[in-house]
From TrEMBL:
<dbReference type="InterPro" id="IPR036291">
    <property type="entry name" value="NAD(P)-bd_dom_sf"/>
</dbReference>
<protein>
    <submittedName>
        <fullName>SDR family oxidoreductase</fullName>
    </submittedName>
</protein>
<dbReference type="Pfam" id="PF00106">
    <property type="entry name" value="adh_short"/>
</dbReference>
<comment type="similarity">
    <text>Belongs to the short-chain dehydrogenases/reductases (SDR) family.</text>
</comment>
<dbReference type="InterPro" id="IPR057326">
    <property type="entry name" value="KR_dom"/>
</dbReference>
<dbReference type="InterPro" id="IPR002347">
    <property type="entry name" value="SDR_fam"/>
</dbReference>
<keyword id="KW-0560">Oxidoreductase</keyword>
<feature type="domain" description="Ketoreductase">
    <location>
        <begin position="7"/>
        <end position="188"/>
    </location>
</feature>
């Protein structure tokens, strides 16, 4: 791709699946992307393929202190960002009592705590400029319960409440906040196998990314505050 000349976005969870597709589609529109993930090798491959408009940043969101250090190190650069897409998430289909305490804390930090940290860093500059966009990829489980996924469900309920509250607090400053609640996506989430290609039971990452990018390009006077998307063949929703 040619080097992008548009606005800058911070995409969290960028190295595979939906996050990777979002980076590709933003850059196809001429935008610049800082892609954040733990997988350094995957980010390097993306940088080689996408060109100079893509900046990789290796960061483990489970490390709250590391997130804080990254925010401080990149404060000047990030002050000009137009938007944040928080797409990171971890979770396991497992009885609650089978989780270790460390797993519970890591899940809450990656799925919710890091989103709060990043917004706390980015919102002051957005407010000064009078605009910006925050988009959070949650889950359909942000709006319904499910046995054997209690920690994950709790984190996504929290993310939904956080996003919807931010919208109401920062809308007067011209900041649009959106929440996307996908059903089952064809990725390797939770240790599963990506690339199953069953478009009836699983959402295809590229198609979902296209829908999300369309949300971001609404006229300035509109905000899509929440969107839930399911594959027609998903068994339960």
């Amino acid at each position: 791709m040619e080097e992008a000349k548009g606005r800058s976005w911070l995409v969290i969870g960028a190295s595979r699946g939906l996050g990777q597709a979002l980076c590709e589609q933003l850059m196809a529109r001429g935008e610049r992307v800082i892609g954040v993930a733990r997988d350094a090798a995957a980010l390097r491959r993306m940088a080689d393929r996408l060109g100079g408009g893509f900046r990789p940043l290796v960061l483990d969101l489970a490390d709250a202190a590391g997130v804080e250090r990254a925010m401080q190190a990149h404060a000047t650069e990030w002050s000009s960002l137009h938007g944040l897409i928080h797409n990171a998430g971890i979770g396991w289909y497992r009885p609650f009592l089978d989780h270790s305490s460390d797993e519970l804390l890591d899940l809450l930090q990656v799925n919710l705590g890091a989103a709060m940290q990043l917004c706390h860093a980015l919102l002051p500059a957005m407010c000064r400029r009078g605009g910006g966009q925050l988009l959070f990829v949650a889950s359909d489980l942000a709006r319904r319960p499910l046995a054997n996924m209690a920690p994950y469900v709790a984190s996504k309920h929290g993310l939904a409440g956080f996003a919807q509250s931010l919208l109401r607090e920062f809308r007067p400053q011209g900041i649009r906040v959106s929440l996307v609640n996908p059903g089952m996506i064809d990725t390797g989430f939770g240790g599963g196998e990506a690339g199953q290609g069953d478009g009836h039971r699983l959402l295809e990452p590229g198609q979902l990314a296209e829908l999300i990018v369309q949300m971001l390009w609404q006229p300035a006077g509109l905000v899509v505050d929440e969107l839930t998307v399911h594959p027609m063949g998903q068994a339960d929703f």
